[in-house]
Automatic annotation (TrEMBL):
Pfam families linked to this entry: GyrI-like
Domain named AraC effector-binding: residues: 183-337
SUPFAM superfamilies: Bet v1-like, Probable bacterial effector-binding domain
Source organism: Flavobacterium fluvii
Superkingdom of the organism of origin: Bacteria
UniProt protein name: Effector-binding domain-containing protein
SMART domains: AraC_E_bind
Database matches in CDD domains: SRPBCC_1 (cd07818)
Length: 370
């Protein structure tokens, strides 16, 4: 019996000693890991910047099939956030700030630990170096766990390494898996639509389109306007040398409407036209390849394009429908210039009974007041 008391006392003293040891350990930690991702910088940034994609590459979600994620209404860029619960605990993160294609700054809470997180993106000859850094404070229980598992650097570092590996694997397939098909000539029916028109750099079209699509969609909801189809963009001009374009971001609607002057949203009608249709299945970064293939077809068939606008793109399936870029579908239409057939004038038969009035007589018969 005395031996049991000694054992219990020894165990108690050990627990007290361990608690004192853990409590006196530094709670601050800094962890950083980097990896070269085999995809273009803009594609990697846009994928990581969308919180909806987090579950596709972060190791906490990838390794936990039962994890529950509750996202905020806005899932892209500054202000986006979500909360998760899983087998390994629960947490939340919020995006504090972003710099287009350069960095993402976040605040993360996970199992009682808080951290300031930065993810930076650097171009490396067509690939992207992603650096993920977290600096924060550990809670008591996590101090205990790290004391027996190699420290915070090993635990969080392993999580970062596996996540970056998942990101590279996911994007390598999703970004680089695509197909292009030239469908041929089609008749594009008349379309009523709402639009906002402006000039943009090529590199900012994707970001600007997302913002304006949301703006026009909200406008339709507030004014009970029926949306009738998929969003599209009309490229009025397309300057490949300076990488500038004048474009209209458009939402098709069921019936034409009147919008008062002063609004940056306009109501227009796109008349029926004949076009060369080309379909890109895959990430939008392959858009230039699709445009080049369509142009080659136009030249091979001696087809001229109409000067009304450069081309039109319809986003039949995008990230609103699926998080897998390899399944996105973009339809591209080049307006075709119609050939004008001029028939030769028919000769007047010598036996005709019609009276031919001389020009001099016509001029003489015109009243002087005209």
């Amino acid at each position: 019996m005395r031996i049991l008391k000694y054992l219990f006392l020894l165990l108690l003293l050990s627990l007290v000693a361990l608690s004192i040891f853990v409590a006196t350990q530094k709670g601050e930690f800094t962890v950083e890991r980097s990896k070269i991702i085999n995809s273009p910088k803009s594609a990697v940034f846009n994928y990581v910047n969308d919180a909806n994609n987090w579950k596709e590459w972060n190791s906490l979600a990838v390794e936990d099939s039962l994890i529950k994620i509750t996202p905020s209404q806005n899932t892209i860029g500054k202000g986006s956030s979500f909360f998760w619960q899983g087998e390994q605990g629960e947490g939340d993160f919020q995006t504090i700030n972003t710099k287009e294609n350069e960095s993402i700054i976040q605040k993360v809470n996970y199992n009682g630990n808080s951290a300031d997180v930065s993810i930076t993106f650097k171009d490396t000859l067509g690939k992207t170096k992603v650096s993920w850094k977290a600096k924060g404070q550990m809670g008591f229980l996590f101090k205990v766990m790290t004391a027996f598992n190699g420290g915070a650097n090993k635990i969080f570092g392993s999580m970062f390494e596996k996540s970056l590996f998942n990101l590279d694997k996911k994007l390598d397939y999703e970004i680089n898996t695509f197909s292009i098909k030239v469908d041929g000539l089609v008749d594009k029916p008349e379309t009523y639509y709402l639009a906002q028109t402006f000039t943009s750099e090529f590199s900012k079209v994707g970001k600007n389109s997302g913002i304006v699509f949301s703006k026009i969609t909200d406008f339709c909801k507030k004014n009970n306007i029926t949306i009738n189809g998929k969003p599209f963009v009309i490229y009025h001009t397309y300057d490949t040398k300076n990488e500038l374009t004048k474009l209209s971001i458009c939402i098709p609607i069921k019936d034409p409407i009147f919008i008062t002057e002063g609004s940056d949203i306009s109501s227009k009608t796109l008349p029926l036209f004949q076009a060369l249709k080309t379909t890109l299945t895959g990430h939008y970064s392959h858009n230039k390849k699709a445009l080049d293939k369509a142009t080659e077809y136009l030249h091979s068939k001696y087809l001229g394009t109409d000067a009304a606008f450069s081309h039109l793109e319809i986003y039949t399936i995008g990230k609103n429908e699926t998080n897998n870029p390899s399944k996105w579908i973009t339809e591209i239409y080049y307006p075709i210039r119609q050939k004008v057939v001029v028939k030769p004038a028919a000769a007047i038969p010598a036996s005709t009974s019609e009276k031919v009035v001389p020009k001099a007589q016509i001029e003489k018969e015109i009243p002087s007041e005209f």
